[in-house]
Amino acid sequence: MSNRRPCGIFDTSYEKDICIFRTPFHRIMFFTLMVGYLLVFPFVAGHGALSIMNSISITIIATLGINFLTGYCGQISLGHGIFVVLGGYISAIFMKHFGFSWWATLPISIGCTAIIGIFFGFSSFWLKGFYIAMSTLASYFILTYVLMHGGPVTGGINGMLVNAPKIGYFEITTQRQFFFLIAGFLILALFVGKSLARGRLGRVFIAIRDNDIAAEVMGINIFKYKLIAFAICSAYAGVAGSIFATYHGFVSFEQVPFTENIWYLAYVIIGGGGTIVGSIFGVLFLQLLSYGVMFLGPLIGEVFPAIAGSIVSSLMLILNGFLIVGFLIFEPRGLYHRWEIIRASMQVWPFTH
């Protein structure tokens, strides 16, 4: 009897079709990635690299939320950035005015941002498409005004200081210590997101996104699940915002300008809407690109002194615009779709027969 195995991967059961790690190679690669991410990188990386990775990790957590709302459920949001800031404010308020620890404020931040997200999501009962985007845009201006004029409760235009988290008597203050804290929440957020996306809730969101009329005919309560999508999106923003506030030790509505809302949509578009891994790809691609532009900006300024003053901000805006348009035209399903094509071809190459 021949010991040769067939080319490619063939699913012989439903469990194999939906499993995350379909081959031993996948398990080995995931284990290697986790070892490198958790046990190697934080001890060999410098202060700057750890700072960049911490910022990227927080952004990925926030992007997972808007990917559920926009990528999976098809509801466009132009106010996600202010919900991230709101999560930080809620933690800061309970820490300053009620003496809560940061750990105690985290579930409060998640719950409050989810409830506020549901409130602004009620417009989805009457509105669709572009009009949903306008209603979420209104949430940005409303919440910004409230935080700006909150007086002693929110600190007004001065923002609020936020204490560092503690584990017992141990205070988390260094970049490496924050790395492990943020990495833990990132892995948990990815696990929860993957579980939701692969379950019934994820399939319902996709049905609403693809054809909400057909989904309603099938018996799906469209309005109910749209509100759930808004709640999940805002809850993820609450987690990211609370971590963001304690990481920086300060929170202000000015930390997230309006353009940040566009960036979150860009992460979803470029990474791949409706995929958990796409959120990672999109944030890594654009964030690392922005840091690259910041690094190259002074060098370009030395060559062209006339544009040295504005080269960094202008070049990043130009590149961002070109990338969004380019991906919408040439790869509308994002980087993750391209990775899926490459991975599928590698599974059978060179024996494509």
List the helices and strands and how they pair.
Elements: H1 14-18, H2 24-44, H3 47-72, H4 80-98, H5 102-121, H6 130-148, E1 160-161, E2 166-167, E3 170-171, H7 175-198, H8 200-210, H9 212-217, H10 222-248, E4 250-251, H11 259-271, H12 276-303, H13 311-330, H14 334-348
Helix pairs in contact: 3-7, 3-8, 3-10, 3-11, 3-12, 4-5, 4-6, 4-10, 5-10, 8-10, 11-12, 12-13, 12-14
Please give a structural write-up.
By secondary structure, this protein is an all-alpha fold. The protein has one domain: ABC transporter involved in vitamin B12 uptake, BtuC (Orthogonal Bundle). Helix content is 72%, strand content 2%. It is built from 14 helices and four strands. The protein has a two-stranded antiparallel sheet. β2 and β3 form a beta hairpin. α3 packs across α12 and α12 packs across α14. The protein is globular. It starts with 13 loop residues before the first helix and ends in a 5-residue tail after the last helix. The relative contact order is 0.14. The N terminus is likely disordered.
